[in-house]
Amino acid sequence: MFNYMLQIIIGLFLFAAATLIAWYEGSAIIDDSLEWNDSTPFTQLLNREIISGHEISQLDYFVYAVKFQPLFPLLMLASALYILSVTGYYLVKRGSTWGIPFCGAIGFILIGGSALIFSRATIINSLFFWFLLGSGILFIAAALLRSFQKHPVNTN
Questions:
Q1: Ordered DSSP codes for 21-34
Q2: Which of 127, 99, 128 lies closest to 113, judged by CA?
Q3: CB under 8 Å to 41, separation ≥6 — which residues?
Q4: Which positions ≥6 away from 95 have C-beta within 8 Å?
Q5: pLDDT score recorded for residue 123
Q6: How far is the C-alpha of 38 from the C-alpha of 50, rounded, in Å?
Q7: 6-26: per-residue pLDDT in tens?
Q8: CA 26 to CA 70: how far, in whole Å?
Q9: Could you tell me the CA-to-CA distances from 91 to 51, 62, 85, 143 in Å, in that order?
């Protein structure tokens, strides 16, 4: 139990650090008025008009960071997936009935997220697409393998 908690704490620390750095890097959108129409989907969702950069939603900082400086947003995603995989592994290892559906649900959510990104044609979005798709397939494969492993075929 201690090993799992230690891994989750390290993952949470890495996630928090990457989030703060990505948020800081994305705050450059305040000064980049040419990107206000293309990189502010959350502000547009709230039907806000952007007159100065200070009306931009904080979530749009992450969109801007993904678009122009994707290292720390990718690190955020990787650390979040690591936390989820450690949690799923712990649930499966403990014999919980939630372990396999948890991993399968995470896999389908990741594949759904990759489908949302698929229509974007930039190289960065392509990187996020393949990262989400590959992770989703791995989560689903792990859930399927574990579910077949749990119920071995009796050959007698």
A1: HHHHHHGGGGT-GG
A2: 128
A3: 60, 63
A4: none
A5: 60
A6: 12
A7: 999 999 999 999 999 999 999
A8: 10
A9: 49, 31, 10, 11
For 36-55, write each residue's pLDDT tens digit.
888 888 888 888 888 888 88
Count Cβ atoms below 10 Å from residue 16 Cβ, excluding itself: 12
Structure tokens at 2: 């201690």
- DSSP track, 61-74: HHHHHHHH--HHHH
pTM of the predicted model, to two decimals?
0.82
The tokens of 86 are what? Answer: 């450690």
CB 89 within 8 A of CB 28: no
Q: Is 133 exposed, middle or buried (CB count within 10 Å of its CB: 0-12, 13-18, 19+)?
A: middle
